């Protein structure tokens, strides 16, 4: 019987041959480290699946052949990548040209022996640069990509200028603080700040710009492109609707959706520093400027746009659960019956159902979430529970992963019943709360109830503490058809509740 390594080798062979045949038949270039090597192999879906099988089998085969002693001695040194970013080394090497290490060291103002080892590490570990002759450096396909794609450069910067030091301080942060707070992270220690990543970026425009650029580089990662969001939800069935893309960054996903669905309008919201950086870039094609707009908005503040759909793409994995609940509660004052929340984020599958390659990627991202944000990736049940916690009037519709997508789609709909009396509602809104009144005949009945045991059913209350305060007092008043806010206020005053509401 064939051993595991023999089976893996056979898988690598058969599937690599399928990829190779496809490339040859279609006149496409073969993968190469050469600087003119293809960035995207342009495989059909079926052959892409063969590529993934070959890749996964080769990773496992590689680990088996290396054995346990080598596996616990991984190469995790990122000094080389950090230096490549910091000194912008790639852009100092001519495309289709060469430069000596001595000359390059002068251009970068680095001591030459240090540059030499930084380059040689990058060549052998990451296939970044080539050394065609001793002491002479040229581009590889990967280093050329760093020069030609600003989003790739931003991604490198995020990971190795901001990230690397944060990873190194994460266990220290775990030791120091036990709470899951976004301000108590490896990032906070590494950057000597008491702010969360996004608060920190608000004060560092250049870093905010780089973060937004890095986010857009993810669109080129397998399974992360806008096409999965475009195809993964029945947008066309919505009709003429407005979508607010909360934390939408440069708007890549809204722009793609607007291109495919001409009846939809998009408002992309993000923090002021991000919107300022985006304004300078003007990423919206001219034919879409009437339907795609940007707006500075802090999602921890009350939502001011009453829209049909609120999209959160890859936003919540940056936040611990309690913060996700807080963010979603900010929508409540703006929600009309039938409004939807659509989340495009990771849905962790059941254990052992992922391919090893997918699992490596998700676990790697989950570790970044820990170091940067104290947040995490979530399973389907986690998403369902979050909506229940936000407000019972959210109905969790479904969660699914579109074919080929790295992220899932989670849908919930706001199913509030209408509230009696316009004045009552606006009064209540002023007080930042909405109470649903049902069938109360008069104050007397209410005070009757007070005597017995007071029960208040709050639906759409903004602040959790207030609710738990009430719970602590074990008072629940059930209001049924109260005619006006005054009565309620009176009732509250009678019960000494008004200061707690
Ligand atoms: C991981 S990025 C995702 C960006 C984009 N949705 C995408 O899928 O590429 C998270 C986004 O949330 C934004 N963000 C963070 N805190 C925010 C806040 N308080 N209000 C609004 N946006 C915020 C960040 O600026 C960033 O653009």
TrEMBL record:
<keyword id="KW-0808">Transferase</keyword>
<protein>
    <recommendedName>
        <fullName>O-methyltransferase C-terminal domain-containing protein</fullName>
    </recommendedName>
</protein>
<keyword id="KW-0489">Methyltransferase</keyword>
<dbReference type="Pfam" id="PF00891">
    <property type="entry name" value="Methyltransf_2"/>
</dbReference>
<dbReference type="InterPro" id="IPR001077">
    <property type="entry name" value="COMT_C"/>
</dbReference>
<dbReference type="InterPro" id="IPR016461">
    <property type="entry name" value="COMT-like"/>
</dbReference>
<feature type="domain" description="O-methyltransferase C-terminal">
    <location>
        <begin position="195"/>
        <end position="389"/>
    </location>
</feature>
<keyword id="KW-0949">S-adenosyl-L-methionine</keyword>
<dbReference type="InterPro" id="IPR036388">
    <property type="entry name" value="WH-like_DNA-bd_sf"/>
</dbReference>
<dbReference type="InterPro" id="IPR029063">
    <property type="entry name" value="SAM-dependent_MTases_sf"/>
</dbReference>
């Amino acid at each position: 019987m064939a051993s595991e390594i023999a089976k893996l080798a056979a898988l690598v062979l058969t599937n690599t041959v399928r990829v190779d045949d496809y490339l040859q038949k279609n006149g496409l270039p073969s993968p190469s480290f050469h600087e003119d090597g293809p960035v995207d192999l342009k495989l059909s879906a079926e052959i892409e699946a063969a590529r993934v099988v070959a890749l996964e089998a080769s990773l496992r085969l590689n680990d088996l052949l290396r054995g346990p002693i080598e596996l616990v001695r991984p190469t995790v040194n990122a000094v080389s990548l950090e230096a490549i970013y910091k000194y912008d080394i790639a852009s100092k090497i001519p495309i289709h040209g060469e430069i000596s290490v001595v000359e390059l060291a002068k251009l970068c103002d680095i001591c030459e022996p240090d540059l030499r080892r930084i380059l040689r590490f990058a060549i052998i570990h990451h296939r970044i640069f080539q050394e065609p002759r001793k002491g002479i450096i040229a581009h590889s396909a990967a280093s050329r990509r760093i020069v030609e794609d600003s989003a790739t450069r931003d991604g490198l910067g995020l990971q190795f200028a901001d990230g690397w030091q944060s990873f190194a301080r994460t266990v220290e942060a775990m030791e120091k603080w036990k709470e899951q707070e976004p301000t108590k992270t490896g990032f906070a220690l590494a950057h000597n700040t008491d702010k969360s990543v996004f608060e920190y970026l608000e004060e560092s425009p250049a870093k905010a710009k780089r973060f937004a650029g890095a986010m857009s580089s993810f669109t080129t990662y397998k399974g992360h492109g806008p096409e999965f969001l475009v195809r993964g939800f029945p947008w066309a069935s919505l009709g003429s609707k407005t979508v607010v893309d909360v934390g939408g960054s440069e708007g890549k996903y809204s722009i793609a959706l607007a291109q495919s669905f001409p009846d939809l309008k998009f408002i992309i919201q993000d923090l002021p520093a991000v919107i300022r950086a985006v304004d300078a870039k003007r990423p919206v094609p001219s034919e879409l400027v009437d339907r795609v707009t940007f707006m500075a908005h802090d999602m921890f503040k009350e939502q001011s746009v009453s829209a049909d759909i609120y999209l959160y793409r890859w936003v919540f994995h940056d936040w611990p659960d309690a913060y996700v609940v807080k963010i979603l509660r900010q929508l409540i004052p703006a929600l009309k019956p039938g409004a939807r929340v659509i989340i495009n984020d990771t849905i962790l599958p059941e254990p052992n159902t992922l391919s090893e390659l997918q699992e490596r990627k998700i676990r790697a991202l989950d570790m970044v979430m820990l170091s940067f944000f104290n947040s995490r990736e979530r399973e389907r049940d986690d998403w369902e529970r979050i909506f229940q916690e936000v407000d019972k009037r959210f109905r969790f519709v479904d969660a699914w992963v579109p074919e080929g997508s790295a992220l899932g789609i989670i849908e919930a709909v706001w199913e509030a019943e209408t509230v009696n009396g316009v004045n009552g509602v606006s009064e209540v809104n002023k007080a930042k709360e909405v109470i649903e009144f049902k069938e109360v005949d008069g104050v007397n009945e209410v005070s009757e109830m007070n005597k017995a045991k007071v029960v208040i059913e709050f639906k759409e209350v903004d602040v959790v503490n207030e609710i738990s305060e009430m719970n602590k007092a074990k008072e629940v008043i059930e209001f049924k058809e109260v005619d006006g806010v005054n009565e309620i206020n009176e009732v509250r005053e009678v019960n000494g509740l008004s200061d707690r509401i």
